[in-house]
Amino acid sequence: PATMSGVRGKRSWGGDVRTDNDATTGSNPAVNDGVPNGAPPGTSSRPNETNQQQKRHSVDTVLAQAGFVGHRTDASHATGNNGFLGDTTGSLIPPIFPSTTYARDTSRGGYDLRHLVTYPKDEIAEHHHVDGEKNDNYDAKHQNEGATHQPTTRPLMYSRPDNPGYTQAESLIASLEGGENALLFSSGMAAVAAVAASTLKHGDRCAIPKNCYFAVRVFFQDYCRRNGVECYLYDDSHEDMTRAAYGLSREEFESNQKQCETMEKLSPVLVDWGAFKNDEKCKLIWVETPSNPTWRVTDIQKASQLAKILRATLCCDNTVLTPLCCRPLSLGADLVMHSATKYLNGHSDVVAGVVVGRKVDWRDWRAGDDPDDTYKICLRQVGKSFQSITDADQFTVFQFLQKTRSFGGAVLGPFEAWLLVRGLRTLHVRVRAQCASALYLARKLQKHPDVAEVLYPGLANHPGHAIAVQQQSGSYAEECYVDETGDEYQKTKADRMFGGMLSVRVKGGGAVAIAVTGRVKIWTPATSLGGVESLVEHRKSVEGPHSETPDDLLRLSVGLENPADLLLDLEAAIEAAAKGAVVIEGD
């Protein structure tokens, strides 16, 4: 097939360069040596790096090129830049596939389906490093993954399950999260509904956070009531999550606690100590961290330990942090959900959702072993062992997710899928800037006399700060800078990114908070988050009178404007509202 002329060579940092030798020999070596983000210019690959390690690429490269970089730079079979999804025109922008159906291949006298060539997911270099150091434990655990970058095929019959436009976005998001596969949905709430339908049936139980995006909480309460599923709400503590997962009232839970000597013995090995009986009804534990809009932090690893004991699916809503800040699958989650409307797209012009499943080990399945025997995970030996959700269970759940999307019709449109890929290509640039601005605003606003409290996990005085530091996977590169007020501080690799969302509680109550939204000039009072424009919202007004969100709380979605401008605008609005200023039309 026709390909774009010219071949790419290699340099140690900062991308690709064309070399005469490469053009002559037709070589196409790996573009990036697997050096993590933030490494100094001039860093070269280590002499003992394997070919597999050299096929890893920085998250910046993978996002900017919209994925499939590993395939395009694999010297073993790549022939220059084959474009996106097998496109031979050399177009830098992936095509849109609006067709609803695909002609059958009758060339061999049959009624055969046509097949789309698909490429393996990219391996992200940063996933193999911790704070700039090579993660040998990760390499040992995943040494057999991605051993080949050879393309495969998938059948095309009808656009609802098979649109080629989904392939690129799904592969890219799965790569970012370190997952096996991803599925796009028509909205974030459609993705939530699909997880519920794929994990819960009549008689089951789910544990849902009381402090989370209110539409998720309301959905689960309604879904469970109509389908005969027990729905227990928990606060953000691990102890209360445990209570909900076992289906206990707070009184029952407190009574059973007395059977254990300490809370450390109670969790995460409740069954070992005989405190509670696992009735095997809990099938889904939902985690949102930090929780919207109060930004409380949940320990994902502890939640994973509990889910494994109960053999329940652990699904983590990672909408706010994105895989650049946190990767829940690496902490033990089984599924990750995103409202892709928010940060993944990032331009406030697409409604979409996505679910990513953790990786499963297919080698033993191919050998014909019984999955229930193969995938027993012994969590702790105290007279007995426990079995987590197996890879067979995970495969079944993901199959149900695929069927739910296809048969339920909650599919994304071809143009929306194309826009999502467009947005993803700048995710790394946007999120880093938004995280930095959010931290700047949080530090400044907590000193403001008219602000009662700033809710942001990046602040050292936040009650969940230590957990957030532990489970955040994204860091800033080293840099020292002076902000507009002359305050100087050092950012190091230890400085995690804590997201672009924060909330402030203003003095004076709900009336003052609402007045602030009418005084801002740069911030826009609107619902949603994660876009390039900064938004402010009075959540109590949106969630209704029964919401537990404080009336004086304003949720801030930090965009890409100058952070100093954002601060001055918000401070002026808060001060004017606190003085009882009235918004006059034309003021």
Structure commentary:
The structure is a single chain. With 587 residues, this protein is α/β, with parallel strands linked by helices. The protein has 23 helices and 18 strands. The chain has a 7-stranded mixed sheet with strand order 5-11-10-9-8-6-7, sandwiched between helices. Helix 8 (188-199) packs across helix 17 (391-408) and helix 10 runs parallel beside helix 13.
Structural shape: globular
Mean residue pLDDT: 78
Question: Can you count the helices?
Answer: 23
Helix content: 25-40%
Largest sheet: 7 strands, mixed
How many β-strands, per DSSP? 18
Q: Strand arrangement, largest sheet?
A: 5-11-10-9-8-6-7
Structural class: alpha/beta
Radius of gyration using CA atoms only: 25 Å
Low-confidence stretches: 1-53, 136-148, 261-266, 268-275, 363-387, 478-494, 582-587
Strand content: 5-15%
